[in-house]
Amino acid sequence: EGADMKQQLCYLVIRHMSYHRLRTLWLWLGLTLTCWLPLCVHHLTQVFEQRLIARAEQTPLILGVRGNAYDLVFHALYFRHGMEDRLKMKDWAEVAGHAGIAALPLVHGFHARSQPIVGITIDYLQRRQLRLSSGRGFTSLGECVLGAKFATEQGMEVGDSVMSDPENVFHLAGSYPLKLRVVGILAPSGSSDDSAVFVDLKTHWVLEGLGHGHATPETAEAASQEWAISGDGSLNATAAVLPYLEITAENAQDVHFHQSTEEMPISAVLIWPDSDRATALLLGAYQDPSQVLQLIRPMEVVESMMGWVFRVRTFLDLNYLLVGIAVISFLG
Question: Is 247 helix (H, G, I), strand (E, B) or coil?
Answer without folding.
Answer: coil
